Amino acid sequence: MGFWIFLGIIVILMLLEVFVLTDTKYFLAGGIIPLIGTIVILFVLITTHSYSLGDFFHALIGIFVLLLFWGAGDDHHRRKLKRTEAERLAHKHQDD
Fold first, then answer.
1. C-alpha torsion angle, residues 50, 53, 55, 60 (rounded to 10)
2. Residue 63 CB neighbours (<10 A)
3. I need a surface site. Which of 17, 24, 83, 95 has the fewest CB within 10 A?
4. Would you say the pTM of this structure is higher than 0.90?
5. Is 55 within 8 Å of 45 (Cβ atoms)?
């Protein structure tokens, strides 16, 4: 059951990152979840004294996944801006 809860949390964070936080005019808003996630991952590593190679590998995968979410959200936002600009120019061209 714990795996499904973890998977649900990951999906919710990804949707929040891609469609909400990076869909603003403020570039750094999309970095909130990756930043907090990285801090939490490092905090857990330090407080549990998990210094094995496997633990570092899992931490790097977690940080990499968070950065992938940020990149996907930023890419989604840039495509949306380009589409909006193209629509605006098309309407302006039709009005002329």
1. 130
2. 15
3. 95
4. no
5. yes
